[in-house]
Every structure is written in structure tokens, then in C-alpha cells.
Amino acid sequence: MKIGMEIGCQADCEVTVTPDLFAQFEGKVVHPVYSTVSMVHSMEWASRKIILPFLEEEEEGMGASVKVKHIAPAGEGAVVKTTATLVKVEKNLIYTEVEAFSDNRLVGKGEVVQIILPKGEIRSKIEQVQTGGNL
Prior knowledge:
By secondary structure, this protein is an alpha+beta fold. It contains 2 helices and 7 strands, in the order βββαββββα.
């Protein structure tokens, strides 16, 4: 990792809720609102934006864990802004707290943990899985 990433730095992800972001399973809409899976995606993306400027050429980040609490719905056309805040760096683990707001109303919050690994190590793990091996 390059130097300069500091506790408290933030990154955002903003989406407008459209039908493809609705809560749905196997193509059937369950609720016409921003889905939890879409919220997780936004939380991971905002968190990833924090690490991107600090990755060395031979490094890549991967999701290690996500904790999310979906608090309130956001309907079609709503703008949801998700903000990730760096709260801890522990060796190669990057911890962010995330909050999602729509119309100044908290719709979700959680934590994203990313792990920074050498690209070669990631490729090796993927190859093992693709050939039926265990990690």
C-alpha cells in the first residue's frame, strides 16, 4: 500500500433507485424499493473507492466481510448516497463504516472490511477454485 491513507478519509457512491435495483428474486419483484443486495453493492463500491488511490501496481483489494442493517425503504426515483469512512487499518485489512441516506433519512448502515493482497496470490486462489481444488 502506498502511504497517505488516513483514518477518517471518506468516499461516496450515489445511485438513483430504478427497477433493476428493486428487491427481487429470480426476476420477480418482491418489493419495488432499493434492495438490500443493491445497498451492499453501493457500500462495497464506496469502500473500494477509499483504497483505489493507495494500491500498488502489484496489489488488489478483495471484500473480506460486510455487515449491513437495512433501516428504511427508498422507492423508485429516490437518490441514495452511501458514504464510507475509513475507521481502521490492521496490517492488510481495511475497515470502513458505511451509511446510506436518501432525502436526509438514514436507510442503511454497516461495515465493510477489505483485504489487500498481491495480485499473484489472488490469481492463484482463483485458479485453485476453477480447477476444483481447495483453498
